[in-house]
Every structure is written in C-alpha cells, then in structure tokens.
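Hi everyone,

Forwarding the result from last night's run.
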Amino acid sequence: MDNRNLMKPAFPVIPIYLMVVGSILLYSIYYFGMYDQLLKDGGDAWGYYIYLPSTLIHQDITTLDSIASIREQISPHTISKDNNNLGFDEVNIAENGNPVIKYTSGVGLMMSPFFLISHFLSLITGKEANGFTNIYWIGHYMGLVFWVLLGIFLLIRLLRRYFDLSTALVTSTAILLATNLFYFSVYNPMAHAPLFSLYCILIYFSDQFYKKPAYLPAILIGASAGLITMIRPV
C-alpha cells in the first residue's frame, strides 16, 4: 500500500475519536468515584503523589511532617501502629529517623503542571490549599486523562505511518480497553498512564529520528527515556 495514502489527513476522525475516549475516561472517573478516596487513603497512588505537596507547598520533603499531620487528620485509619505515622508501607523510616518514600519521583514530575493549576485555583477561590482537597484529586485525574490521550494520539500517528486508519483506531482501542491501562487511569491512579504516554513518545520519535535525524526528536527520545527511568528504574 502506498505510504502517501496512509498518511493522508484523517481529520476530523482522530479528534472525534480522542474526544470520545476522553469523555469515556472522565465519565468512568466520575462513575467509580475514587478520585476523593485513593489519594488520601494511602497506597501506591498516595506514595507517588506526596512528592508534590511536600515539595511545592509545605517544603518539608526531608521530614514529611505536614504530610503526616494531614494524613492523620483526613485518614487516621490508615496510620501504622509501629510508630510510623506516614502509613503502613508507602514510607519507610530510616535508622536516623528520616522518612524515605519508597516510590520514585517521576510520576510527581509529570503530574506537577496539573498540581500547580489545582493549587492556583485553590488560592484564587479561597479554598484550602494544602494539596489534599478534592480540587487536587480532580486535577490529578485530569492529568492522567491528558497523558493517556497524548499517548493514544501519538500511537495512532505512528500506526498511520504503516497501516490504515481503521487498523490504528482498533489497535489503540484494544490497548486502552484490553489491558490494565483503563483500570489504572480511572480507578487506581498509579504510574501506568504516564508510562504509557512516555513509551508512546519514545517509540514515535525514535521512529521519526531513524527516518530523519534531527535535534528535536533526539531531545524528546532522551527526555522520555529519562522520565521512564525516573518512574520505573528497575
């Protein structure tokens, strides 16, 4: 098949497809109603998240005192009984007494723009701006949806270089719905959505670089590979 035909503009099919996918993700987030639970009740999602409020708001990343205090207020049933007021498994206490977050900071870095938007909205609306209110949870999930949609968009663009549009759309839909990507995007906000987007960025621009080497794809290859390592180093 002629590659020139494969790469003909497919608008408005792709934008409509992305809007449908985004709407499904947003409705699913609302339907399951976990946006105000998981990020305050501990677990992996909480562990990835606490880099943001502790660094950007409370500025106590080395002690996590504010995080411990807030967790005890909003979710006391998740506090460990072994003198660790930062949860059961998410934060370990070193021999010198300092807390050590067992999760890497890559997810927090990727979600930081959405956190800052949420923080700004909290400030201008007079809401409590401590990093642990509904506006932050909603912003976090909006960030996940953004990264999923970006990844799907780049995946479709990549597949369109070699296959027709219907194949690209079916493949993208299968990856979203037939893997754990959907679950970890709308129900349990862990690292999967940002990683999916990063791998799509890495593959898309690697393919582009090998076809036509240039600085921009090289930079994006390095940046995506670096962020992937920051999220899942092993």
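Residues 3-231 form one domain.

Cheers,
N.
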